[in-house]
Structure formats: C-alpha cells, structure tokens
Design brief:
Membrane topology: Multi-pass membrane protein
Keywords: Membrane, Nitrate assimilation, Transmembrane, Transmembrane helix
Strand content: under 5%
Mean pLDDT: 88
CATH class of the largest domain: Mainly Alpha
Radius of gyration: 21 Å
Structural class: mainly alpha
Subcellular location: Membrane
GO cellular component, one term: membrane
CATH topology of the largest domain: Growth Hormone, Chain: A
GO molecular function: nitrate transmembrane transporter activity
C-alpha cells in the first residue's frame, strides 16, 4: 500500500505525492496572484473612483474578511471530501469574483467583488492539508513550507507584474480606465485552467481518493480502529478544543496577517509616503512577496533540522525567535525615513515574517493528526483575522506609518503565544516509534 513520502524528489512528477506537491503550489500561486492582483493597481483605482483612505481600508478589510470563514470551512471539507474536490471547487467558484471585479463601475460594486475574491485565500489551507497527508514527519515541515512559500510568491508576482501588464496595455493604446480591467481578467482565466489540471492529475492521499477509499471500507489515513481521520464538523470540534490551536491562531495572525496587510498597503504606502511611480512602487512591494520563493521554505526546513537535532519543542523555540525578529524589523520599517532604508527594512522583516509562517505550519501536523483539516483551517483563519484587525487599526489611525508602529509591538507580544505552544514529550518527532505513530494517524 502506498505510504507518505519521506523524501522530496523535487524534479519528479512520477508519484502521487510529487504531483500533489507541484500542482498544489501552482494552484496556490495562481490563487494568490488573483487575490492580490488588485493591490498594486489601487493607486489607479483609487483615482478613478475617487476613494478616500477609509474606503481603501474598507476594500483591504473586505479582501481578507471572508477568508476567515472560508478557511474555517474548507479545512474540515478537506477531511470530508478530500483536497482534490475542495481545491477544484474553490478555483472554479473563486474565478467568478476575480472576473467580476474587472466589471466594477463604482466603489460599492468593487467592494462587493473584492469581498468575494477573498475566498480564494482559503487555498492556503488546502495546500497545507494536501502536503501534510502526502509527506511523512521527516520532511513534512519542508514540504509544507516550500509549497506554501512558492505559492505565496504569487502575491509578490502580482505586485510586480500587474503594473507592467497595465503598462503594456497602455502602450497598445488601451485607455487607463479599460487597461486595469483587462489586466484583471488574466488571473481569473488562469484559475479556471488550474482547476482542470488539479482535477485531472491529483489524488487525495497516497492510497487514492477519499470517496473511493470509503467505498472500499478503507479508513482514511490508514490508522488503527477508531483512529481514522475525523470528518467535517467532528474535525473542527476536535481542533477547536485544543488550546495549542488557538495559540498558533494568534501567532499566525501576527505573521501571515502582517504579510497580507503589507501586500495590500505597500504600493499605496510607497506612492503616497515616498512619491514613487506606480511601477517603482510595484517593484518595491513585489520584492516583499517574492521572498516567499525561499523564505517560507527556509522556515520549514530549519524547523525540520532543529527537530531532528533537538526535540519537537525546538520547532517552538524557532518560531519564538522568528516572531521577535519580525517585530523588531517591522518597527524599523515603520520608522525608515528614506525609500532605500524602507526597502531594506521591509526585506529584513519580510524574511523573518515568511520564515515564521513556514515554522508555524511545520508545527501544524503534530498538533492533532486526526483532525488535521480542522487544525489547519483554524490556524489559517488566524492569519486573516490578523489582517482584518490590522485593516481596522489603519482605518482608526488614518496613518499607515503609525499603524505599522503599533503592529510591531503587537507582533512582539504574540511571540509569547509562540513559546506557550510547547508540546509534551509524547509529541516528539525524533524517535522512529513516534514517527510511525504519527504517520499512521495517531495523535501527536
């Protein structure tokens, strides 16, 4: 019987595990490209609709608010229906508001479609779920972080490429008003194409698809009697009763929530605060997102290495240190008085932020493997709660630099939640016996 992979054969698509790995980060990339495609164009859209800073804040809040609910739902849905069906459905449904936003004619309609686009942010949970069921404890942290990091780079790619796409359309004679609308059709079409590829070439877990396994009387995750993976509501209830889930909910809000917030405001901040052009602001903001190409994977890889040399709580210590580095770097970014220092500070704190995201989800498979969907969904939703809270904070202060300063202090406080996650010796992923138990679906 097929089992979880204990190695990552990066240049192979011969196995279900590696096909899932590559297609899930690609789907995630497309989703994040679509999610943040509007952000670098906000200076244009702001001018066309005559938006105030408060209205821009409302749009940023809408972009991440609904993701909280969808992430809570989609995790247990993966347990119930399998990641293949969940991802395909999300890609197809998510393409509707992505295409719809291009037709917006007012602030209200733009806000409505921006709210709908936020649902595609739940793609992260499915990505983390799919790699978690495909890879064993020795490499699951690296697999989770690499897939998430490469997919996450879609946000950075959108920051850099969308202004260039608009520029190219303008050179062809397309008007400003029509240019950004045509550009926003691209990610919607890519999502539909990706849905077809995901449905055709992936399967739910190494053994096959969940519906076929249930029909054959096979327990999902191959555990002992009574140890099959919980489905739907049961998965959510089991996860929500675990205090470590809520501690990581807070820490993920303080790292991924900040990441989303920076994606949404960076271009506007560089244009308004440092008077950069749209293309210059897009390149500066895009550099933050493109750190995800390696930084999130680095966080997961370091977590795996530290756990192999120490204990499971070495993962916890790493997350704590990364959160401290993120908070300090964010304060530097907030206080930078020149564009060069601002970009350097953003890259420094961005490195810590992306690594912290990777280190968080390197811990997720060891919290409760029988309710993985619920755990991944709740913690993932924490990221969006953090982004929404940051959006409301910006709306309240009316000043981006002041908002960043306050957020830096809150990130430093959240590091205390990271260190409080400490797991018992029973969850240690070093011994072979425990590795096998986790791989078979027993609680960590």
């Amino acid at each position: 019987m097929a089992t979880k992979a204990n190695t990552i054969a990066l240049f192979s698509i011969d196995t279900p595990q590696m096909r899932a790995f590559h297609l899930t980060w690609m789907a995630f990339f497309v989703c994040f490209f679509a999610w943040f495609a509007c952000a670098p164009l906000m200076p244009i859209i702001k001018g066309e609709f005559g938006l105030t800073l408060a209205q821009v804040a409302n749009i940023n809040i809408a972009a991440v608010a609904i993701t909280i609910l969808v992430r809570l739902i989609v995790g247990p849905m993966c347990d119930r229906f399998g990641p293949r069906k969940a991802y395909t459905g999300l890609l197809l449904l998510g393409a509707i508001p992505v295409l719809g936003v291009a037709a917006s004619q007012s602030y209200e309609s733009f806000l409505f479609f921006r709210l709908g686009i936020g649902a595609v942010g739940a793609s992260f949970v499915i990505t983390q779920y799919h790699t978690s069921v495909m890879f064993g404890p020795k490499v699951v942290g690296t697999a989770n972080a690499a897939a998430a990091g490469w997919g996450n780079a879609g946000g950075g790619a959108a920051q850099a490429l969308m202004p260039l796409l608009v520029g190219a359309l303008l050179m062809l004679g397309v008007s400003d008003t029509l240019g950004w609308r045509v550009a926003l059709l691209v990610p919607g079409v890519l999502m539909i194409v990706m849905a077809g590829l995901y449905w055709k070439f992936t399967q739910d877990c190494p053994q096959g698809n969940y519906d076929q396994m249930r029909a054959a009387g096979m327990a999902i995750e191959g555990g002992k009697a009574g140890h099959a993976r919980a489905g739907g509501w049961e998965s959510f209830k089991a996860a929500s009763a675990n205090h470590r889930v809520w501690l990581l909910f807070v820490t993920y809000g303080a790292c991924f929530g900040i990441e989303i917030f920076i994606h949404n405001i960076a271009a506007v901040y560089y244009v308004d605060h440092f008077k950069l052009s749209l293309k210059e602001a897009g390149m500066a903001a895009g550099s933050f997102g493109l750190l995800a190409l390696f930084a999130r994977a680095l966080g997961g890889w370091v977590s795996d290495r530290m756990a192999m040399r120490g204990t499971i709580n070495s993962r916890v210590t790493l997350l704590f240190v990364l959160m401290i580095g993120e908070g300090a770097g964010l304060l530097w970014f907030a206080k930078a008085d020149g564009v060069a220092f601002a970009v350097i500070a953003m890259l420094v704190f961005g490195l810590f932020t992306h690594m912290a995201c990777g280190a968080t989800y390197a811990l997720v498979p060891f919290i409760d493997s029988r309710a993985l969907g619920g755990v991944a969904g709740i913690i993932g939703a924490g990221g969006n709660v953090g982004a929404v809270a940051a959006g409301f904070l910006m709306k309240g202060t009316g000043d981006i630099a002041q908002t960043l300063t306050i957020l830096s202090g809150l990130v430093l406080l959240s590091a205390l939640c990271a260190i409080a996650v400490r797991l018992s010796a029973a969850a240690d992923d070093r011994p072979v016996a425990v590795n096998n138990a986790v791989a078979q679906g027993e609680p960590a």
